[in-house]
Structure formats: C-alpha cells, structure tokens
C-alpha cells in the first residue's frame, strides 16, 4: 500500500538562490487553480479511499506539487543542462525539447543547454554521437515536426559511463524524456551519481504512446497517437460497410496496455469489438469471438475489431525474443485472428471480406496535436522548475489537473494498465456492446 514516504521526492540540497520566477509567483498560495509550493496534492480522491487509510491528514499519501519555487538550488549562471530522448518515438518529443530550452533560457537565464543524441547511447564516446548545443534559435519551430531532433535508441548503457560523461561535460542536470524503460535507466544513473557523491539532478518527462507509465496521469503524445489510430478505425468502418460480409481488423500499438485501442475505439464509438492485453478472450464456443463475430455480421452486415498488438498472446506461441531494451517482441496476433476468422467463415459457409489495417508507426511519428502540444510545454516547464530547485530522481506528471513531482522509484515499481474493473473498460463495453467476457 502506498505511503507518504513513497512519494517523497529526493533533493540535492537546500535552495538558497533567488528564483527569477519569484517575480511571477513569489509567495503565492493555493487557490482553486494553483497549488502553492508548500501545499501537497492528495494521492486518493474519494472519501472512501481516504477513510480506508485510517491515518491522520499529515500522514495521508500526498505528492509534491509541480511548479516554480521562490528559491532554487542551482545558480543559472553556472548551470549546464543536458537533454536526452530515449525509447520509441512519440508525438510531442520536439515540443518538450523546445519548451525545456525556452524555459531554461528565457525564464531562468540558463544559457548552457546541450542535447545528447540517440538516447543513452549518446553518452558513450565510442558510439560517436556528438553532443549538440540547444539554443532558442536551434529549437525554433522543431515542434512542427514529428520525431525527435535529438534522435533516440533502445538498448542498455552502463550508468558508470553515463555519469562519467556527465562529469566530463560539466552537466549539472539531466532531463530524460522517455518511457518506463528510460525512467528505470534514469534511476540507475541517480544511484551511480549518489554512489559518487555528486550533485547532479535527473528529472524525467513521461513519454509513451502506450500510456503505460503509472501515477503520472497521462503520458504526452498518447492523445495525438490514439486520435491518429481512430482515423484507421473510421476507414475500416467505411470499407467493411461497403463489402459483403465485411470484417475489419485494426491493429494498434500497445504492448501490455490497451489504452490506445480503448480510446481510439471510443473516439469513433463505432467499433464492434475491442481486444486488449488486459482482458483475455477465447475464439471458440457459443460466446467465443468467432461465434460473436458471425452473429454481429449477420445482424449488422459488418464488424470492426480494434486489436491491441499485445492482446490474445495466450492464443499463440509465446515469444522469447527481446528487443535491445529488454521488451518482449510479441507474436503476431493479427495474422492468427485473420486466419482463424477466414477458416471459421468458410466452414460456416458465410461470405467474408476481410480488411486489415495496421497504422503501426504512423500513429507515433506525427507531430503533436494542439492539445498534446500544450501538455508537452507545461510538463516541460514543470520539469525545469523541479530541476532548478534541485529535485532529482523524479518524473513530472499531471494528476487530476494538478502538476506533480513523482519519485521515479515509485513509478517504476508498477505499470499502468486498463483495469477490467475500471470505468474506462466499462465505457468500451457500453460503446461496443461486446459481452463482458468473450469466452
Ligand atoms: N530496466 C532497465 N534498467 C535500465 N535501463 C533500462 C531498463 N529498461 C530500459 N532501459 C533503457 O532505457 C532506454 C529506453 O527504454 P525502452 O524500454 O526502449 O523505452 P521507453 O523508455 O520508452 O519505455 C533504453 O536505452 C533502455 O536500455
Ligand atoms: O519501436 P519499436 O522497437 O519497433 O517498438 C514498438 C513498440 O514501441 C511502442 O510504441 C512503445 O514504445 P515505448 O515503450 O518506447 O514508448 C509500442 O507501442 C510498440 O509495441
Ligand atoms: Mg516502454
């Protein structure tokens, strides 16, 4: 069970430098739209949850509020900040890079900001990636492009090598823009920094289209990605409606979390079945997927399945392959489903027109939409505030509209998934009218 201790953010030391941001918010206290720096944000948000803790107010689990402090730890004139993007692409990476640079430069007066290229590999001299200066001029308009101007990579690098490079380059703060794996890597860097008794801060910004990072509310880029995926669902619906016995399968990314599938399906309110890694399903039997599909096509003329790539892995041979970061390479559930559906409809002597859509990388290589761009900029600002205040080993997030600083070890001890008992999955069941259990 989460405790207040789990949510305490580490700090490099006392803040003694006047913050330039004090001009804007100095001494400001909490109001409906702002959380003062000495206030904390509740982990729980219902009476029943709070009551069930059985502890007094001061011991309730609470988050540190994100945002500027009156005093900061680092002297902007002598501070050097490094920025790195790691893991899979995600809409908004360039927005975050740009917003970090602008916030540091314009508001804190930090002139020395550099980018490491191609993820953690950028720290390894033998791999030959240059460290590049990041200035307001060099990041101008990068937010209009998808991808990351810094490049990215998967694959482990030695934290000792990374910290050696940080010291060699005189970097005081490392901003890690990445997902769950990157945050695990960031924590290892913190451990090495502490082992060496250094005062280098490490601050994360939560990136991933999968939205599988727990406790941070939502990762940036997720909303753009599912909106893009929703376009394929719309196209699938058009295709299958024009066909005889039309069945469309739209496979979307989402290794272990079905958020993209759920939200993209809800965005259309038009899918017949949503299959996600968190909810097992069967193909056979009267209430299995094949019989349900046959009935749905008979009733409606066509059907669209939104399939998360990690769904139904129990139906196909387990994969023992890993990507360079240690993520499991999944089996091809879409191909298996296509084969099984084709066989079933042939055996039942029913007409079938199969349409398969795989938007794949197209949903994560696009620029952020306006809403995600706003979110990216605000997360980046929050991350810079935390970094300048000497906070470390944390990732920023936005829970129930409040920006928070969340300890990385708290985030990496679990994962964020669609709960079969939650209201999101209930909405999906309501929208698709698929049965509670396909078995
Ligand atoms: N358990 C881990 N410990 C240390 N580093 C990790 C761990 N998992 C991933 N990383 C590193 O973090 C980087 C990004 O991880 P990856 O899983 O590819 O993407 P993401 O951060 O988006 O989940 C890679 O360089 C990877 O080696
Ligand atoms: O980029 P790769 O190595 O092809 O991996 C694809 C995977 O990356 C993801 O986009 C998630 O990546 P991250 O964990 O790096 O955010 C998954 O949705 C997808 O399964
Ligand atoms: Mg990941």
Q: What does the model show?
A:
By secondary structure, the protein is an alpha/beta fold. The chain is built from twelve helices and 17 strands. The chain has helices at 22-25, 47-53, 93-108, 159-169, 180-195, 222-242, 259-268, 289-300, 333-347, 370-388, 408-412, 423-432, and strands spanning 10-11, 17-18, 40-42, 62-65, 71-72, 80-85, 112-115, 132-133, 173-178, 201-206, 246-252, 273-275, 302-308, 353-357, 391-392, 394-399, 402-407. Strands 3-4-17-16-10-9-6-7-8 form a nine-stranded mixed β-sheet, sandwiched between helices. Strands 12-13-11-14 form a four-stranded parallel β-sheet, sandwiched between helices. Strands 1-15 form a two-stranded antiparallel ribbon. Helix 8 links the parallel strand 12 (273-275) and strand 13 (302-308). The protein is globular. The chain starts with 9 loop residues before the first strand and ends in a 7-residue tail after the last helix. Bound molecules: adenosine-5'-diphosphate, 1,6-di-O-phosphono-beta-D-fructofuranose and magnesium ion. The site of adenosine-5'-diphosphate has 20 residues, from helix 5.
Tags for this model:
439 residues, Rossmann fold, single chain, binds magnesium ion, 4-stranded parallel sheet, PFKA, 9-stranded mixed sheet, 17 strands, metal-binding, alpha/beta, binds adenosine-5'-diphosphate, 12 helices
Taking all Cα atoms into account, the compactness measure Rg is: 24 Å
Task: Please report the number of helical segments.
Answer: 12
What share of the residues does DSSP label as strand, in percent?
15-25%
Q: What is the mean predicted local confidence, pLDDT?
A: 97
Fraction of helical residues: 25-40%
CATH topology of the largest domain: Rossmann fold
Q: How would you name the oligomeric state of the polypeptide chains in this document? A: single chain
Major sheet: size, sense and barrel closure?
9 strands, mixed
Termini separation: 33 Å
Count the E strands: 17
The structural class is: alpha/beta
- Tally of discrete structural domains: 2
CATH class of the largest domain: Alpha Beta
Order of the strands making up the biggest sheet: 3-4-17-16-10-9-6-7-8
**Low-confidence segments, ≥5 residues, pLDDT <50?**
none
Helix-strand string: EEHEHEEEHEEHEHEHEHEHEHEHEEEHH
Identify the bound ligands: adenosine-5'-diphosphate, 1,6-di-O-phosphono-beta-D-fructofuranose, magnesium ion
- How would you sum up the global shape? globular
The CATH architecture of the largest domain can be named as: 3-Layer(aba) Sandwich
